[in-house]
Design brief:
It contains 14 helices and 12 strands. Strand 9, helix 12 and strand 10 form a beta-alpha-beta unit. It folds into 3 domains: 45 residues, 434 Repressor (Amino-terminal Domain); 96 residues, Rossmann fold, CATH 3.40.50; 140 residues, Rossmann fold, CATH 3.40.50.2300. Strands 7-8-6-9-10-11-12 form a 7-stranded mixed β-sheet, sandwiched between helices. A 5-stranded parallel β-sheet has the order 2-1-3-4-5, with helices on both faces. By secondary structure, it is of the alpha/beta class.
């Protein structure tokens, strides 16, 4: 059974006795059409079953898709589960609302089809959530001639990096957390895409594939002067419950101060300390990053940054604005979990 022919703009124009351009104006720029003509065209379109201009063809003509693509570097559920990602995407979404733009979430996990999924996305610009240095997606988004913002790095030609100075903030946080400590330690983000949880001693920072993790580890090493004996527990994901096992493994090494690379990981350390009956900060000083809403209630010393504002900045860049030229702001917020 053959499909009925699709009603076109020309069919509506013939029915109304107007030009196809007039019908186009009725849908795309209705303020340029006389009210009576606009009414006649819309009524004729309803009778004929015309649903309006094809959005794909229209975007091709305009070279405009009306959407931002956010390349997550994670499974899709991560965007809704991870507190950092939620705050960042809320900032992106606010700019989309203000500008009338859509939001296309593009999960990538290192699979072979990632590149084509990103390349074929119908978007006007890209935001890349922090990824590894060798991610092949970076070369793709950088070569499409569209604006690109990368949150946290790495830097690639043609893209803007948005984020705080992670190395400097880590130096500051380590200085405050490790003051008076004899056995410092770190609870770290994943080192690379294999996301293998493990406990290492003084791992070389240059082997870490994620730029944010690498810069924070380097900042800690800067402060210590020599990190060769530093216990570093690496988690699979930024998740308080999932990090519990590695927090316990880290405390088994006997630290008296822990810098965790996020507040969620710091909460996992505080949970482990409570289970062991350790006093915070007398027996164990703890600090994190991001200043989560729960950080103040927990008295957590942390690096405060606005992931919401950084999401906004990335969205403006992806929409083709010149965007901010400043580095994202951060402050060390000292509370009761450090000495």
């Amino acid at each position: 059974m053959s499909r009925p022919a699709r009603v076109t703009m020309a069919d509506v124009a013939r029915r109304c006795g107007v030009s196809a351009m007039t019908v186009s104006y009725c849908y795309n720029q209705p303020d340029r059409v006389a009210p009576d003509t606009l009414r006649r065209v819309r009524e004729a379109a309803d009778r004929l079953g015309y649903r309006g201009p094809d959005p794909t063809a229209r975007s091709l003509r305009r070279r405009h898709n009306g959407a931002i693509g956010v390349v997550l570097g994670e499974h899709l559920a991560y965007a809704f589960e991870d507190p950092q990602a939620r705050r960042f995407l809320a900032g992106v979404a606010e700019v989309c609302r203000e500008r009338g733009s859509g939001l296309n979430l593009i999960p990538t996990t290192g699979a072979a089809e990632d590149v084509e999924r990103v390349r074929s996305a119908s978007v006007d610009g890209y935001i890349v959530w922090t990824t590894v240095d060798a991610d092949p997606v970076l070369a793709v988004v950088g070569g499409l001639g569209k604006p690109v913002a990368i949150h946290g790095g790495p830097g690639v030609p043609g893209a803007r990096v948005v984020g705080i100075d992670n190395r400097a903030s880590a130096r500051e946080l380590a200085a405050r957390t490790f003051a008076g400590a004899r056995r410092p330690a770190v609870l770290s983000f994943p080192f690379d895409r294999d996301r293998r949880p493990r406990l290492e001693t003084g791992p070389p920072a240059e082997t870490v594939a994620f730029p944010v993790t690498r810069e924070r580890l380097l900042g800690v090493y800067d402060q210590l002067g020599d990190g060769r004996e530093l216990p570093v527990a690496v988690v699979a994901r930024n998740d308080r419950e999932e990090a519990a096992a590695m927090a316990d493994a880290l405390l088994d090494t006997g630290p008296d101060a822990v810098v965790a690379m996020s507040d969620q990981l710091a909460f996992a350390v505080l949970d482990a300390a409570r289970r062991r009956g350790l006093r915070v900060p007398e027996d164990l000083a703890v600090a994190g990053w991001d200043d989560d809403p729960d950080a103040d209630r927990a008295g957590l010393t942390t690096i405060a940054q606005s992931l919401f504002d950084q999401g906004r900045d990335c969205a403006l860049i992806a929409l083709g604005d010149r965007g901010p030229v400043r580095e994202a702001a951060w402050t060390a917020t000292v509370r009761t979990t450090t000495r």
